[in-house]
Amino acid sequence: xxxxxxxxxxxxxxxxxxxxxxxxxxxxxxxxxxxxxxxxxxxxxxxxxxxxxxxxxxxxxxxxxxxxxxxxxxxxxxxxxxxxxxxxxxxxxxxxxxxxxxxxxxxxxxxxxxxxxxxxxxxxxxxxxxxxxxxxxxxxxxxxxxxxxxxxxxxxxxxxxxxxxxxxxxxxxxxxxxxxxxxxxxxxxxxxxxxxxxxxxxxxxxxxxxxxxxxxxxxxxxxxxxxxxxxxxxxxxxxxxxxxxxxxx
Length: 249
Known about the structure:
The protein is mainly beta and about 250 residues long. The chain has two domains: about 1-130, Lipocalin (Beta Barrel); about 150-249, Beta Barrel (Lipocalin). It has helices at about 100, 195, 220-225; strands at about 1-10, 25-30, 35-40, 45-60, 65-75, 90-95, 105-115, 120-130, 150-155, 170-175, 180-185, 195-205, 205-210, 235, 240-249. The strands form two sheets. Strands 1-2-3-4-5-6-7-8 form an eight-stranded antiparallel barrel. It starts with a strand and ends with a strand.
């Protein structure tokens, strides 16, 4: 359960010059492991290049090993919907560099599909667990409590994107502290990605990223999410029903 900001990434096979951070990447996750990960190219505006949602599975034998399952939704598979989405498994550790440790950086190593090459490659990512009420996403601090209000909403009846039939939709929003991210997909095999998706990243009522044809029409407002009071509550936006599947006051 956190708001995590990526500090850097390195693809050792295809990026020999070392780490960098070409994107604005934030993951908002819940105590039960639901997450929404939105990775945007930097520029005058932030444009999502890859966005996905699923759940975290902690290895029962080694808590430093976490699988980030993307089967619920992964934008890389909108035009080629399949049940065979490769597992994204990372092993977390403290950095060797003392300065990075002091800055709250955690290192994740694993393998996943490189969105640039389309090939499954080893990667090294560096993450900072941010204060969920901080606009600038500074490190939460070594002794700070990670507890914050959390609401997770889900749209559609399918359990994962490969089970969504044409004309139906799927969506998830994770709100933690002041931050929330959401993804939405209405399957239409005749349209391009941007015409079938909605992506949002927001801090309180400030919308920072708004992408796709559905971004402005399907997501509940900050006020509506803030007024949620219980698990099982339903929010209606247009013809989309959002069910509260996790609630931490």
